Amino acid sequence: MAAVAGLGLTGLGTASAQAAGPSAARGFDPAAVKWHACPADFVQQVHDLYDGLYPVSKIVQCGELQVPLDYAKPSGTKITLQLTRTPHTGTGAAKGDMVVNPGGPGGGGALFGPRVFAQNSAALKDAYNVIGFDPRGVGMSVPSLSCDPNYTNAPRPDYGTGDRASVSVWLKKSKGYTDACKKVDKIGLMNHIKTTDSVRDMESIRKALSDKKLDYYGASYGTYLGSVYATMFPKTVGRMVLDGNVGPSDVWYDANLNQDVQFDKNMDYYFGWIAKYDSVYHLGTTQSTVRSFFYKLRATLKTKPVYYTDPSSGEKFAVGPDELTDAIQNAAYRRSQSLWNGYAVGLGAYKTGDAATFVGTFGAQTTGGADDNEFAVYNAVQCTDVQWPKSWAKWERDNVRINRKHPFLTWSNVWFNAPCLTWPAKAGTPVDVGRNRDLPRNILQFEGSEDAATPLAGALDMHRRLKGSQLVIQDGDRTHCIVHRGSAAVDAIFDRYFLTGERPGQSITHVPQLGDPVPPAQTTAKAKSLTATATNAARLTDDVIR
């Protein structure tokens, strides 16, 4: 589930979702997917990101699937979903197709397929093809929604703390973004991009693969996709894993308020970790000192952003308070050495005057724009899954209250979601997750107890709704989505379930956390070039599931 992290959660237009969904999908029979070589730039991206784990770039395949824009009109306008298949390595037929989704909404799933395959155990590689897909509107799917690539040019206006000036600026900026989205949507995609539309697409994918059942791994928002699929199409669920669980009762306004609290707690914990290693980072020996440094820096950047021009390309980059917050938020998504060390080094670079490293770690382009596809789809989905409060007074009241105790994310999260105040497409009514007498009783969930993006209370809500599900909780862990994150206990349960169908056997199972990382032996706060530092920063965020 996206919260901000670089400027991820989400229903059906009628309350009787269980009845309407299957009948609409039965009216469309997709063609079989024809697999072929992927585009060279995509293969290169797979190579650069994942071949260090397994040479997936040599085997990944691409395919396209045409589906109805509107499933109520199966013979009408078609759109195209981009799929990938990373084929199993065993002999004979595969045990099945593991369809995967990384979350968002708006996350690119075509690339997530080879990633999951590369991280799978040898036994899972032998057994399963992994199927990734870019959901409607996302990535290589056609059309792909992009509204205003210049929306994130740095430095952006300060998120503020609910002050009159910031509110005025951001309400206008957010309204401008919704207007831009309305202008670029030529076929009415924004009226057909709810979670339930993507769920019907998943059913079309199952049919196109000729699979009797859908075997599925969903992370973050992908857990909501999976749970809605299980509610709408319960009889075609095979094995289903939900990792980093959305709370269905809180979609989507309350879910974002819940995030604000836990992200703030995780960031304070991170500041304490930096203080523990003051001999490395030199930012203060106590949590309060490091925390004070961060918030003073954020205030300074409001009037004195840091600029740096890459000497090799001539491109200009900048860090203001928004860019700093968006980037370092990743440290609250995942507890890892590379992330925690990388951002601590970046903060230290500001203190020592190393602009190249500081801007390379936290900065964004000042001109030319950036890909806004994920942000556009995030809003297109969540703003229409359910009606958000239309009263700015309610938004203001709720967020002023939370910001008093939890100031890290609150107002950045407001403006990330503010397009929902004026979104041009009509909102629907969410599916009542779990309300189906035929609901499968074999679903397996995973959750870190201190997950900020999808807090534990939401996972417990999901668990209560999905009768018969079993939930694995990693106690004390602050990582969002815990499969393939270094826990042998977690990955063994994941493997055993997909290979044999066996689950732990009790409603809730607890496994131990991994503990905090330690700084690398050779930590340096000096960058060789902005390009090298920026590339490293980009790879840090690539390993964060939202």
TrEMBL record:
Molecular-function GO terms, alphabetical: aminopeptidase activity
The AB hydrolase-1 domain, residue ranges: 98-293
InterPro entries: AB_hydrolase_1, AB_hydrolase_fold, Pept_S33_TAP-like_C, Serine_prot/Carboxylest_S33
UniProt keywords, alphabetically: Aminopeptidase, Hydrolase, Protease, Signal
Signal peptide: 1-19
NAD keyword on record: no
Chain ranges of the Peptidase S33 tripeptidyl aminopeptidase-like C-terminal domain: 411-506
PANTHER family documented for this protein: 2-SUCCINYL-6-HYDROXY-2,4-CYCLOHEXADIENE-1-CARBOXYLATE SYNTHASE, TRIPEPTIDYL AMINOPEPTIDASE
The family this protein is said to belong to: Belongs to the peptidase S33 family.
Protein name listed in UniProt: Secreted tripeptidyl aminopeptidase
